[in-house]
Structures are given as C-alpha cells and as structure tokens.
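Schema walk-through. Below, the input block comes first and the output block second. Nothing else is stored per chain. Lengths vary across the set, and this one has 277 residues.
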Amino acid sequence: MSFNAPLDITRLAISAGEAKAAARPGKALVAGFLAGAYIAFGALIATVTSAGLDPKQWGGITTLITGVTFSLGLILVIIAGADLLTGNMMLVPLAVLAKRVTAGGMLMNWFWVTIGNLVGSLFVAWVLGDLTGIFASGTISHDRLEAIATGKGIDETHSQQFFRAIGCNWLVCLAVWIALAATSVGGKILAIVPPIAAFVALGFDHVVANMFFLPAAMMVGAGDLTLSETVLNLVFAFLGNAIGAAVFVAGAYFYLYGDAARETAATPPPAGERIRD
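--- output ---
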C-alpha cells in the first residue's frame, strides 16, 4: 500500500489551491454551497447523536461522539468534492506562496466560497433543522443545540473564539493534508476522522460549522443568542481559522518543502517518490 510523502502532498496541495483559485465565481459559489451543506449535515447529525448525554455523567465522551459524527461533513467535502473555506485557507495560500496565484485571486476565492458556505449552512439549518422539526422545542436535540450555541456564541469571550479558531483550523487543515497523503477512499476517511474529532472534542471554533449552529439556534429559539453575537463569533472564528491554516499549515509546510515542490506542483508526484510500507 502506498501513500504520498510530505513533498508529494505539498505538490498536490499547491495544484489544488491553484485550481480552486481559478474557478469562476459561479462554480466557486456552487462548490461553496455544497461544502456549507455538507458541514451542516455533519453538525446536524453530531447534535442529534450527542443529545441527551449529560456532560456531568458522560464527561468528554459527549464531545468525542459529537466530533466523530461531525467528521461526516469533511468526509463528504473531500470525497464528493466541494469548496470549504477553512480548507481553502490552507490550499490557496500555498499556491500564492508558490507564485501560482495572486493575493487578490486568493481573497476573491475566499469571498465567493464564504458566501456559498454561508448559504449552504443556512439552507440546511432552515430546511433540515427547523422545518423538519428535528430541533423542535422540548426535544433533547433542541436542548443540545442550545448548549452548543450558547457555549460558542455567549459563554466564550472574543479572544477565546479567536484562539480556539486557530487551533480548530490547524487540525482541520491537517486532516485535509493527511487526506492528500492517502491514495484510497478508505485511507482518506481514516485520515480525516481523528483530527476532526479532536478539534470538536476540544471545543474549538470552526467558522463554517458555526454558520450552522448559531443561526439554527436562533431559528428555533434555542437560547438567547442575538444576531450581533452570532456575527461577532463568525468574524473572530474567520480570523482565527485563517491564521491556523495559512501560518501553521500552509506557511510551515511551504517553508519545509515549497522550494522543491514549486516547479513540479502541476504534475502528479512521480511513483518513485512515494513511500511504501
């Protein structure tokens, strides 16, 4: 069984970032919509499956179950194909560092993908979370959603949201990074789950996931979250996620492997450069 070494991953990531930045706005919007919906699917099932588990009794098992089931979202993004802002915060900066994409092109990609992610998240929150009655008042799913949204939107300070977001996207982008190392669907799924389960279990903030959790709570009246609290959470989560991706993954790995990968990023890695176990 083969897998891609870090140099190969860097090549593949640069090429992926270049391709994403080159997408027309319409395609970036649709791909972003799908990714927002997929992350919302993961958030929806994570909320339902962890509902009723009293943290005082179950402790960290509650958030671990939340994280493992939430992994569905990134699995769908990676395997089915979509544009997730938090992943693009790592992939497109790599292409910028390799001089394949301009900073302006990166920001435009982030702009369109952010809009698509937001619309996809809100669509699932409304149609599948609210209109279906899954989060109806009096259900344990409603109570679980209230606990998640209150914790993220009210209990956390803005500095906590920012620093938690750095940790979140460091782990999320590592999940994307090691998924690029895998050469099979099963390998990619196994690569994705542990880092995603880790960031959720640690209570870190993912801007696209919060595009689902916080508006969904407001739609169904789960807690006292306000629009301003939601917007501020998304702003600080966005900034922290960007740093976690661009500095600690894109920047670090480009420093380590960028010079060697820059000239060959557009072509698949040679078979002889893959590690075999």
